[in-house]
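User: Hi! I'm a student and our assignment asks us to look at how structure tokens line up with a sequence. Could you show me two examples?

Assistant: Happy to help. In each example below, the sequence comes first and the structure tokens follow. Example one:
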Amino acid sequence: MADRFRVSYATLSVENEDLHIAYEEGLKLARNWCGATLPVRVDGDARRAGTTFTITSPVDSSLTLCIVHSATGEDVDDAVAAARGALPGWTARPWRERVELLRRAADLINERANELAALMSLEVGKNRLEALGDAEESADLIRYYCGQVEDNDGFVRPMNTLSDRERTSSVLRPYGVWGVISPFNFPMALAAGPVGAALVAGNSVVLKPSPQGSFTADKLYECLRDAGLPAGVLHVLPGGDEVGAAIVKHTDVDGLTFTGSYAVGMEIHRTFSSAYPKPVICEMGGNNPAIVSAQADLNVAADGISRSAFGFAGQKCSACSRVYVQREVYDEFLEKLAERARRVTVGDPTERDVYMGPLVDDTAVERFARTVADVGGKGRVVVGGAVLKHSPQGHYVQPTVMADLPLDHPVFRDELFVPIVAVAAVDSLDEAITLANRTDLGLTAGFFSNDDAEVERFLDRIEAGVVYINRAAGATTGAWPGIQPFGGWKGSGNSGKAGGGLYYVQLYLREQSRTVVL
């Protein structure tokens, strides 16, 4: 499938009419799914004992996407027990067979990409290119992890020996039952990635999606099921925080991947292990800086920063939220960024020419409005700042650029998950790097300069797991499996290894040293 055209997060636009026609056909199918009632998926059964909650579209709050049964405590217990029961057969399955099955699932995601993307547009408000990228990334993540297992020959390595009568080896083995708690903003990719890694490593999985990603998670389950995944190997437990807490506290869950906020991730990190240490992968938030040198191409910088600040309405942990600009080019850069913010088309993300869709819910709109109001006399809103009214009603706001705020303002510290970017003038590159690093988080960062020595200084000093230099396609966003491994430093991640990278699938495995005397 290497020669097939793919939409990635670096895709700026697509003029291919066939792609747009296919997406619109997928949109018709996704709209026909609306109103469905989704079950809890336990051991291949569709359970409907739990209370229900309703998911409406942020695009149009009058549109009911689905009614979802929430997992009960009994459902969680039964899913974990079934995952435990299915584990010996799945682990014993030759790794090549697991790889083959998961690659079939990736192919099914690609085959269904248009309807899956359209569903994500309706469910979380992604524009069509972002949504198609999410579906494509899901398939690519699964394939990449399959390739990592294949390239490492199933992670079985011969070792040196102390005697001619010994045969020694190092073998990576699965932990057992693995929990995955996934977020709304990449409802397929950030479920498919850890689920795929855990499965290809030989673990069984219980998946708890974000409520607003429940529909997409159910469709991911269908792709894996239709590829031939045995019923007991994957379970889907939709619901609110109480379902996630039940998985975290469950003594028979052997490992966990969480993607979400710093506060929740740190609480999980502190509490997940009980009788003995257990692996937990926490991928947490970001307050991601970009630095613009006086030696930068300001048009490239403005393009990259606007894409990273306003793509998916800023609802990415990698979104660019703060920019430090050398004073001599500050005014010129600020006007270029403001100009790009004014050009952003806001509206129904299923429409071809719309770049920025809605925020996910009323809480996000309130957070946006509160942040704008807090500027007060402390700084100024250069462009944007308004909550928009659409008919039918959705959660729409303006892309917003702020300036002249005190450098200790919360906008420069807190993860907002809204389309707001704050710009500040600095006197030197050293000052900019110091300010960029002045946070507990360290996910992504961007730098714009045509001076090689400045680039090296930035790379040597910046405290972030993913960095981009002079990237018009996204100053701080746009990582892709096998190309840019995605993981954070400091409070943005606890594993030191990055998703879509060379060392990620090994996090789902533990080493066993084997010595056999002949």
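Example two works the same way, sequence first and then tokens:
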Amino acid sequence: MLIQRWFGSLVNRAVALVTIVVLVTALIVTGAGSLLSRTELEQQARDQVATIAELVSLELDDRLGRRLEILSEVAVSLTMSETALRRRARVIVQQQVALQHEFDGLYLIDTEGQVLAEYPEAYEQTGLNVSHRDYFTRVASQLTPVISEPFVSNVRNHPAVMIAVPVFNHDGRFVGALGGAILLEGDDFMEDFSDLTVGETGYLNLVSHRGTIISHGATGEVMVPVGREIPVMTEALAGFEGTVQTQNSLGQDSIMSVQQMAQVPWFVVAVWPTQEAYAPITRASDNFVWILFAVILIVVPLALWLFRRLMAPLQTLAIQIQERYQGTRTIPVEVAGGREIRRVAEVFNTVTETLHQEQQRAESILGVLQEGVLMLDADGMIRFANGAACRFIGVDDNCLGQNFFDMVTIKAAGQPWHRTDFLKGADIDSLYATLRNHRAVEFDIDLTLLHIRQGLHNEQLVFVLRDDTERRREEQRLSWEATHDSLTQVLNRRAFTATLVKLLGEAARQDTPSVLMLIDLDHFKPVNDQGGHLLGDDLLRRLADLLKDSVRHSDTVARLGGDEFGVILPSCGLGPAEILAEKIRAGVEALRIEQDGRSFGVTASIGLTELTIRDSGPREVVARADEGCYVAKSRGRNAVVVVPVPPDSGDSGD
């Protein structure tokens, strides 16, 4: 009973499962401990390559040193005069049996660089001048033994290295040089080096500090430039010595060890591809992978089975919660399992009941709101709607289950908005739009949109619709009052000035000039004084109507203040404008108002002028037209005066 009770807790079951996992992990970690040997194996491979490079370097140094030493001893024994050296050259060379075994070619050279004698004579180098060779230049100038850089010899163009030592007479004067040639493709000096390998696929390179490959163990190349694309080779040319892991000239990942030589400015490079060098590590890793794979095949199914058994009550709980959410389950959730799962079920039932009460309260509140509130699914089906929302849609009763986008058409800025526009777009704080429902009733609305779980299969859209008709009407009214004269219903001075500024900006693009007409009423004050302000106001309204009836739809009529009116005639020209002004003048003169047996009327002094690109602003144009009004008044009033545009100063004559 105690054990059963202990396992009744989901936490305890999880602890037991974790314990098992930890034990299995410990076994795997123990097996993986063998991987720690990888570092040691890698170090052994690096040490092996470094040792080979060092041994080969020492061996080559020893061979070169021994040959240099023998050649130097023979040169010392040849102390004689230059004449004797020339006379006995062939005999001297033929007698050097020891040197003949150590070198592929033996040469005696005079001070001028001419070969006096050679062995073997089959090379036919006797009489050849080698003064241009680097080794002769150095031995003649330095008077010390020299080991040359690799060069192409005259012996069938074979690559070779020359060891040259100076020969002196009894007075210590330089009388010639004794040289021993080593053919890099010969079977003596380089044979053993060329056949050496590192493992089965590794090889050795011998390179001079001048960047010339003396021997390439992989390709057999000689006398070719070293590849500078390998950083370690570039560093070796500068004196680097050590072991690194990099790519070789064949593009293989390799361990490369560089060992500088002591006798000559050469270095040995031992190269061992890591594929072979780390083969034991790879095999161990493969074995470990197979073991790990076997463990996984056993542990994973077992862990899955145990976990599913432990989590089965939670799966049942999830199904019941989903049914409760979708409304197909009306009773509280009931689930077996551990104490923790039963506690979750109890909390869920409590929360669900509380949310149900809160939902009813929220629906009651939303029901009395004037704003329409809807919740839609991704297809546009209405899942919740308050009464105001249904009225917007044009449904008298419950509109749940209807497709919102089939019932209404929404336009904003003249463009229709579809379901995909709302789905793919961001949340909307405020969108001024027009909603037309299926009954053809239109509403000016302010729309707010909120996405819930956007992009998921259970995405929902929450719309809030506010009737914006009154606000827009008020906005239109205020906008109209800001631009119109309240008495005459024509534009006021502010709107008139804005229109004039706009036309001045377009003057350069107009083929026919626009015209400004200013109308100043004559004798208006007596009408106000004798007939009263109401009569004056009535006269102003009739004059405004006369002006509106006289001009085109594209023309602008404005009251500028008191008894002054302005008319803007776009693309009219002075000729037609003057005719229109005379018509307006005559109409004003003919307009009479009767009151108490008396007749009242006024006349008009009218000034006309064109709008040009030379005008700096509306003030300049208005001043010019106003000047026409003054001239008309000075001529007795009731007249039309055209004020021409002053000539451009740049166009003036003498």
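Here is something you could point out in your write-up. The longest strand covers residues 442-452.
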